[in-house]
Amino acid sequence: MASTRFAFFCLLLLSSISVYAQTGKPNVIFICADDLGYGDLSCYGATKLHTPNIDKLAQQSLRFTNGHATSSTCTPSRYGLMTGQYPWRKQGTGILPGDAALIIPTDKTTLPSLFRKAGYHTGIVGKWHLGLGTQVEKNWNGNIQPGPNEVGFDYSFIFPATADRVPTVFLENHNIVALDKSDPIKVNYEEKVGNDPTGKEHPELLKLRSSPGQGHDQTIVNGIGRIGYMSGGHTARWTDEELSLTFLTKAQQFIHENSKQPFFLYFALTEPHVPRMPATIFKGKSGLGFRGDAILQLDWTIGEIMKQIASLGLSGNTIIIFTSDNGPVLDDGYQDGAVTQLNDHTPSGPFRGGKYSILEAGTRVPFIISWPGKIKPGISPAMVCQIDMTSSFATLLRQTIPAGDAPDSEDTWAAFSGKSKKGRTILVEHGSILSIVQNHWKYIEPGKGPKIFSKVDIESGIDEQPQLYDLDKDPGEKNNLAAAHPEKVKELADLLQKIRNNQAGFR
Ligand code: NG6
Ligand code: CA
């Protein structure tokens, strides 16, 4: 028995080695958490939470201490990742409702289409939040397109927007999963549709209380008030406790089915975005409320993926990237213990701000890359950004990107692969306003707005005066040096303006 298993193992190993030897193309799994902060993992210094599986991945990885999403919220951040274009260049890339039309162009290079062109089988499993179809008014009961499959993914298993937005259903390729056609789905973000109770009318039906003043009190699904109204599709509605396991199962299925050819998987986890409603076995495990529990569930998920990759003999030829779409938030709409059971945990790590903010914790996120035998494990201070995936993988895969596509994506493969400690020298960060980082200097443009986003209790970073920080000496952005260095302020303000005006590429 043992020898049969050994022979089987050798066969697996040989078959996968030969695929890589033949193609020279490593598999790539890009894992993106949702709202996970720089300080949320023990490998990034968390002490109140332990994430052993991601720590193990980090030990075999290059771990970046200056890794960024393009923006401090989801839709723009993922738009940047997919298109290689700064999202603030394009109207309509803010946080999308669940019925929005697709905002990714179907005729331009995207991260998945680059892999597809290079001969990969490409898939997405998880959160999408980049719109579906050509218009808001759409028939959810038929073929829904364009969507992920039209922008480069051969396979998709997604939910349309966020876990707190209707419709709370899965789509596999173009169709809603488990939809009973005799109970058609309707979605509306303006007015109530159907007779399902809402959180506003029936708070007594809620198993998770919505935070006062933060909405999340429209159609109730699975005892949770959502943003938006929906009716019908009762058999297709997800159970939040099963969400993560469903995505894991589909991701593993995709990996299994494609283990004999190069594949690219964008695994877009929903944790720890609200509503945090982890599987029952994780509830109460962290002692930090459901947010902490959701992070433990996420950590377990990563462990399961790593186990699968190892058991398929793919560890040596699979690049795993783990990161987050934006910084952390505690109360983002539900009273789930994230605030009351925080226990001095610091989701933003040493940085100021968080989700929605232009301060560092808005976009500076966990960022680790593993490629055993090829990328030397360690820590890198290089400034890297998710927007650079497209150009960097184009270099690795020897692909050319047509002129004008992915216009803001820089080739930083040398930094991603650990050959260089220098990544970008310039990065524009994006919250509700812009900032620019050049080397260790960060300039935040003056803006109008609240100093604190009071509902979520996060510093916005907005000020009517220009701000200048030396991130090397002052990573926590405590000392505004603008008055002391007016020449630097001018230089960076001019540079930001120049980049803003440079509309090269598509719009
Ligand atoms: C906000 C929601 C928040 C969350 C966020 C999107 C309110 C008051 N808040 O508008 O709960 O859904 O949008 O998060 O509605 S993101 O990670 O997808 O950007
Ligand atoms: Ca997010």
Overview of the molecule:
The protein is an alpha/beta fold and 507 residues long. The protein has two domains: 25-424, Alkaline Phosphatase, subunit A, CATH 3.40.720.10; 432-500, Arylsulfatase, C-terminal domain (2-Layer Sandwich). 23% of the residues lie in helices and 17% in strands. The chain has helices at residues 2-23, 52-59, 74-83, 111-117, 240-257, 289-311, 389-396, 413-416, 486-501, and strands spanning 27-33, 61-68, 121-127, 155-159, 171-172, 175-176, 186-188, 220-221, 224-225, 229-231, 263-268, 318-324, 367-370, 378-385, 426-430, 434-438, 441-444, 452-453, 458-459, 467-470. The N and C termini lie far apart (61 Å). Calcium ion binds next to loops.
CATH class call of the largest domain: Alpha Beta
Helix content: 10-25%
List each distinct ligand once.
Answer: 2-acetamido-2-deoxy-6-O-sulfo-beta-D-galactopyranose, calcium ion
Strand segment tally: 20
Integer count of domains: 2
* Number of helices in the DSSP assignment: 9
Query: Which H/E pattern describes the elements?
Result: HEHEHHEEEEEEEEHEHEEEHHEEEEEEH
Give the low-pLDDT segments: none
The fold-level CATH name of the largest domain is Alkaline Phosphatase, subunit A
- Provide the spatial order of strands within the biggest beta sheet: 6-5-4-3-11-1-12-13-2-14
* CATH homologous superfamily title of the largest domain: Alkaline Phosphatase, subunit A
The main pleated sheet reads as: 10 strands, mixed
Q: Give the N-to-C terminal Cα separation.
A: 61 Å
